């Protein structure tokens, strides 16, 4: 029914290639345009849970994902002297570390490997304008080349510029008042297979996680209402990070040095995307571009994969894209709204201002760790709330 409908997807990370995988399987002709010159492989661990896990199983990549496990054995809360205050081993569905814990870059690579023969990838380009016609959508790239497609789907992340081309400023970017920097640093002798979480006064958190590449994935987050940082240059952003790190203690000196030396510090404000519509005419959006839930939920990857699977499936079953978009949105929106609900106190609870606040966080963590049900997520996000595949129906579309 759908053979050779031409679809352009913007963004080659998680949502875009997953959508490409399924659309190609259903006989669509798919092109993915990615702004970077090659796949962007940075970032820390992503976890694939519940419905996301069911989808990777259907895609035949679950074993590869499990084999690429980071090797993290759990989470430790440490104090300024690197003494362990609380410990959450990686066991059971409620732990911070999940069974299918994979580096973002490894997952991006796996998805690319499994789509590159059926999907056309165009790197180093992005969309600069779109023109919706009754029977096609005309898309122009930054090399001035234009091409007609049947559909255009933006899957280019929380700061999607394609989204703006389609919807203007209608979608809302709801800033959580939290900034996060992710970067990869060399492993040292004192690093273990535990993720180590350090809460510093001044609403700052450092998190060091081991990986399966012999390096350490560092993250540094802090509370701030200042909205200018995302528009600053890399140099200015590094200065902001170093200023914020000052006096934090623990691995402060190590991170300071690494920020200076590192060319791939991914720094952004943590924001949710709230959009009243996900489609307009022949164009639409999925993944973080459409409904970023923030990394605080631990559900960005699952939402991106579920959205891609359902959208491709609905398109495969219906001739009219309008009907497919409506059917998809009906399934997907309640799930997105549920996931986007942050528990009360997140992210402020995990980023206390004072020394007293820090000791409270560590004490509460220790208390939670000592209980049989280790609900660390209740304090630090709703990651523990494992959204099982039963919470959203995943029809088989074949
Ligand atoms: C470099 C990087 C590191 C990340 N690190 C983490 C992390 O450590 N922890 C975490 O929880 N989440 C991280 N994320 C976000 C995480 O990948 C997403 O929340 C989630 O997996 C949903 O993915 P997505 O495909 O919707 O969007 P994203 O993963 O954000 O991917 C968007 C893709 O679109 C590309 N792109 C952007 N603008 C354009 C454009 N105009 N034209 C074409 N392509 C464009 C980007 O280069 C990227 O490849 C990171 C994202 C990126 C891009």
Describe what this molecule looks like in 3D:
Residues 6-339 form the FAD-binding domain. InterPro entries: FAD-bd (IPR002938), FAD/NAD-bd_sf (IPR036188), FAD_aromatic-hydroxylase (IPR051704). GO terms for molecular function: FAD binding. The protein is α/β, with parallel strands linked by helices. The protein folds into 2 domains: 6-71 and 103-173 and 272-343, FAD/NAD(P)-binding domain (3-Layer(bba) Sandwich); 176-270 and 345-380, 2-Layer Sandwich (D-Amino Acid Oxidase, Chain A, domain 2), CATH 3.30.9. It has 12 helices and 18 strands. The chain has helices at 15-25, 50-59, 62-67, 104-113, 161-167, 234-245, 252-261, 288-291, 300-317, 321-340, 355-370, 376-380; strands at 6-10, 29-34, 45-47, 74-78, 84-89, 101-103, 120-123, 127-132, 137-141, 146-149, 151-154, 172-186, 194-200, 204-210, 215-223, 266-274, 279-280, 283-285. The protein has a 7-stranded mixed beta sheet, sandwiched between helices. The chain has a 6-stranded mixed beta sheet with strand order 7-2-1-11-18-17, with helices on both faces. It has a 3-stranded antiparallel beta sheet with strand order 8-9-10, covered by helices on one side. Strand 1, helix 1 and strand 2 (29-34) form a beta-alpha-beta unit. Helix 6 (234-245) packs antiparallel against helix 7 and helix 9 runs antiparallel to helix 10. The longest helix is centred in the last third of the chain and has 20 residues, at 321-340. It is globular. The two termini are 12 Å apart. 48% of the residues are buried. The structure holds flavin-adenine dinucleotide.
């Amino acid at each position: 029914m759908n053979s050779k409908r031409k679809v352009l997807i913007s963004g080659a990370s998680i949502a875009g290639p997953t959508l490409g995988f399924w659309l190609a399987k259903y006989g669509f002709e798919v092109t993915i345009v990615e702004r970077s010159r090659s796949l962007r492989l940075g970032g820390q661990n992503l976890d694939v849970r519940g419905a996301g896990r069911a989808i990777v199983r259907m895609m035949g990549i679950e074993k590869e994902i499990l084999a690429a496990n980071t090797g993290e054995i759990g989470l430790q809360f440490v104090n300024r002297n690197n003494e362990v205050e609380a410990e959450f081993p990686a066991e059971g569905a409620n732990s911070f570390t999940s069974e299918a814990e994979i580096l973002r870059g490894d997952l991006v690579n796996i998805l690319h490997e499994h789509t590159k023969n059926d999907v056309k990838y165009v790197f180093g380009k992005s969309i600069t304008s779109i023109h919706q016609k009754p029977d096609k959508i005309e898309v122009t790239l930054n090399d001035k080349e234009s091409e007609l497609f049947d559909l255009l789907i933006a899957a280019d992340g929380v700061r999607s510029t394609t989204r703006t081309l389609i919807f203007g400023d209608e979608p809302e970017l709801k800033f959580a008042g939290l900034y996060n920097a992710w970067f990869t640093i060399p492993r040292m002798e004192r690093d273990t297979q535990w993720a180590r979480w350090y809460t510093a006064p001044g609403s700052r958190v450092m998190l060091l996680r081991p990986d399966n590449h012999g390096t350490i994935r560092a993250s540094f987050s802090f509370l701030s209402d200042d909205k200018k940082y995302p528009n600053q240059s890399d140099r200015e952003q590094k200065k902001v990070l170093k200023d914020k790190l000052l006096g934090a203690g623990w691995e402060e000196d190590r991170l300071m040095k690494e920020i200076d030396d590192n060319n791939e510090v991914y720094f952004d404000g943590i924001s949710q995307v709230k959009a009243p519509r996900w489609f307009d005419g022949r164009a639409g959006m999925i993944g973080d571009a459409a409904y970023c839930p923030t990394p605080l939920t631990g559900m960005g990857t699952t939402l991106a994969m579920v959205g891609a699977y359902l959208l491709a499936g609905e398109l495969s079953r219906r001739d009219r894209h309008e009907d497919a978009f409506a059917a998809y949105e009906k399934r997907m929106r309640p799930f997105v709204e549920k996931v986007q609900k942050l528990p009360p106190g997140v992210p402020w609870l995990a980023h206390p201002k004072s020394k007293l606040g820090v000791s409270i966080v560590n004490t509460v963590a220790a208390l939670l760790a000592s209980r049989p049900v280790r609900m660390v997520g209740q304090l630090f996000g709703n990651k523990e709330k494992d959204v099982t595949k039963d919470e959203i129906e995943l029809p088989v579309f074949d």
